[in-house]
Amino acid sequence: MKVLANDGISKSGILALEKGGFEVITTKVAQEQVANYINENNVSVILVRSATKVRKDIIDACPGIKIIGRGGVGMDNIDVDYAKSKGIHVINTPASSSESVAELVFAHLLSGVRFLHDSNRNMPLEGDTKFNDLKKAYGNGTELRGKTLGIVGIGRIGQATAKMALGLGMKVIAADSFIPSVDVKVEFFDGQSVTTTIVPQSLESLFQEADFITLHVPAQNGYIVTEKEFATMKDGVGIVNCARGGVINEVDLVKALDSGKVAFAGLDVFENEPTPATQLLMHPNISLTPHIGAATGEAQDRIGTELASQIISLLS
């Protein structure tokens, strides 16, 4: 059987699938040609990440599809319920990229509190002529230790983020409508560990208490953070979104940054991907990455082998 990995798959995933008797195709097919390609090449499994969408039209047009796989957590680019109603297996890899995303959250947080996103723009331009001016401009950073991190959504990625925050000596609070409490285990290199229990609180109280806020929620029908929510936050708060575009009102975010209400933002995802708004890309107080939360070699290896394992189990 043939597997189309339209958004790519790790070498380890390819090898595992081939060992299981599958032919893996890594040709990148344009969205509008996906259905034709699947039918013409007798593809039984389509694997995607965030770029390719598998909607009702493709599902209806491709009766030979047996599995739709998402390399990652969120499946908002797949019509999951409709696919299942047609007898198609829908799989994903919810645990494989949690640490990678959590590390990117802290890359943005550390960049923001020490102005790395802006100093890395200006040092190449003015480091040799205005060194002391830049030193003064970037010399009043903030430590994360001892500060309160508010995690909106304490699922797998939220928990991985909490572990890193606890390791840095931060206070962690969370808001989550679906999880009443969670035990977070911080493991050390020598086998020792420390476990603490996080009991989620209201979103409103989290916004009021947190020094920094990070969002770990699926795609929403509306915004979670707008001008109204920004107004309730501490002055100088930092906010990071490595979850999904559209959970923060970006126009309101820019206003909050310009007013100083928000000290900095870290954005890995945007409302208009792959063409984020220019005012975001040019803003000196936003740390930017192009939707790379799960894009580490280690995570992609885990994703590839986990997808392969599930496919082999379902179809062998």
Describe the structure.
There is one protein chain. The strands form three sheets. The chain has a six-stranded parallel β-sheet, sandwiched between helices. It has a five-stranded parallel β-sheet with strand order 2-1-3-4-5, with helices on both faces. It is an alpha/beta fold. Helix content is 38%, strand content 19%. A hairpin with a 5-residue loop joins strand 8 and strand 9 (193-198). The N and C termini lie close together (10 Å). It has 13 helices and 13 strands. Helix 1 packs parallel to helix 13 (297-315) and helix 5 packs across helix 8. The model has no long low-confidence stretch (mean pLDDT 97). The chain is globular, with a radius of gyration of 21 Å.
Break the fold down into its secondary structure elements and pairings.
Elements lengths: L1 E4 L5 H9 L3 E3 L8 H7 L2 E6 L7 H6 L5 E4 L9 H6 L3 E4 L5 H16 L2 H11 L4 H7 L10 E5 L3 H12 L3 E5 L6 E6 L5 E6 L4 H7 L2 E4 L11 H6 L4 E5 L8 H10 L2 E6 L10 H4 L4 E3 L8 H19 L1
Helix pairs in contact: 1-13, 5-8
